[in-house]
Design brief:
The protein has 128 residues and is an all-alpha fold. The protein has one domain. It is built from four helices and no strands. Helix 1 packs antiparallel against helix 4 and helix 2 packs antiparallel against helix 3.
């Protein structure tokens, strides 16, 4: 492996994982502030603990970036199917949780965007 290949890999994954995390986490934190408050104190929110969000985002963008870099877009589809199946099993009883589902989709879309950009950088098909 020559140096330029290693630098492309580092730059692609750094774009996806680091920059992607910063953008997604800041945007989603702002969106959660706009979500309506819980109606009752005993209700459970769809917003996971920040550590779970951190690692979930890292794994998600890692899958997206690797799928593009390895020319295996089926990995992205498989991940989205798994996410959809998990979300589908959850009930959505309140306005707060409906907003949470929208925020979830925004986060997924932006994570996908950063993962694809990172994968294209690794493949060097995106001019910087």
């Amino acid at each position: 492996m020559n140096v330029s290949v290693v630098l492309r890999i580092i730059l692609g994954y750094a774009t996806s994982l680091l920059i992607g995390h910063i953008v997604v986490s800041r945007l989603l934190n702002r969106l959660w502030r706009l979500a309506p408050p819980k109606e009752e104190e005993g209700e459970v929110s769809y917003r996971p603990h920040p550590t779970i969000l951190l690692w979930g985002g890292i794994v998600e963008r890692l899958i997206y970036t690797s799928s593009i870099a390895l020319a295996w877009p089926t990995g992205i589809v498989a991940w989205f199917v798994l996410k959809a199946a998990i979300k589908w099993k959850m009930s959505v009883p309140t306005t707060h949780d409906v907003s949470g589902c929208s925020i979830y989709m925004v986060g997924s879309g932006i994570s996908l965007m950063f993962g694809v950009i990172g994968g294209l950088i690794v493949k060097w098909q995106l001019a910087i």
